[in-house]
Amino acid sequence: MMRLPNLNALRMFDAAARHLNFGRAAEELHLTQGAVAQQVRRLEADLGHKLFHRHARGLTLTDTGRSYHAPVSQALTLVRDATDKLSPAVQRVILSVPPSFASKWLVPRLPEFEATHPDIELRVVAEESLTDFKRDGIGIAIRQGRKPQERGLNSALLSLVDLVAVGRPDMALTLGKTPDLADLAQYTLIQDGHRHWDLLLRHEGLSATGRVLQFNQTALAMDAAINGQGIALVPRIFLGSQPLEVLWQAPRLGDQGFYVLWPSAKGRAKAVVDWLLRQ
């Protein structure tokens, strides 16, 4: 009989299969990308089967990996549910948020939450992908985009996406007068995976004449701006105490916003939703 695989290896395989990306799986599990990739390779060696096709920009499941993932995911859910019954889930709330939202908005506010809600164990999962609330045990999610229309989900607007161009204070001195979009297009622009610079320039019939630095996360774009590498376009609510100066206000993007989503606000989950919406 084949020896049963290591439970942690199965958790890493499950996360990688859901995200189809070792980096995002590592973010969810609070591990390094290398650790996740190594465990998956070891699992493949133990099973004697290749589970993923590796590509330059991510992963795809092999036929074997796809058929193996479904029962593994179900088994992990059963283990999670059984464990939750030993420690009532009402005292624990899992909050799923985009990584940049977590680092720039949520984390600075967590001490205040912990001080006012010592009876709630708030677990934060940083991920961009859509959430399966039941399968993943998620109680609340925050997502950036248009107003959600999913049936069976409650939603509330936390904040509209109020985009501002930001740079170091010395960049403001360089620009001098209040700039317009055409002025900014002459400098190095820093954009994240939402590609808002591209969208705004195309809408105005302009093109960037300087360099465009591309990052997949808003937090990385902000860090590059702090380091003086150019001008980033970011949600105003991420600024907080960051050493960045607002250089330009972008036009409003309709109903694009940060929305709080939850299937059922009972017990501790309701307290977390209420706290989020008061911020």
TrEMBL record:
SUPFAM superfamilies membership: Periplasmic binding protein-like II (SSF53850), Winged helix' DNA-binding domain (SSF46785)
GO molecular function: DNA-binding transcription factor activity; sequence-specific DNA binding
UniProt domain HTH lysR-type: residue ranges: 5-62
Keyword Zinc: no
Pfam families registered for this protein in UniProt: HTH_1, LysR_substrate
GO biological process: DNA-templated transcription
Keyword tags: DNA-binding, Transcription, Transcription regulation
PANTHER family in the record: GLYCINE CLEAVAGE SYSTEM TRANSCRIPTIONAL ACTIVATOR (PTHR30537:SF26), HTH-TYPE TRANSCRIPTIONAL REGULATOR (PTHR30537)
Family: Belongs to the LysR transcriptional regulatory family.
Name the record gives this protein: LysR family transcriptional regulator
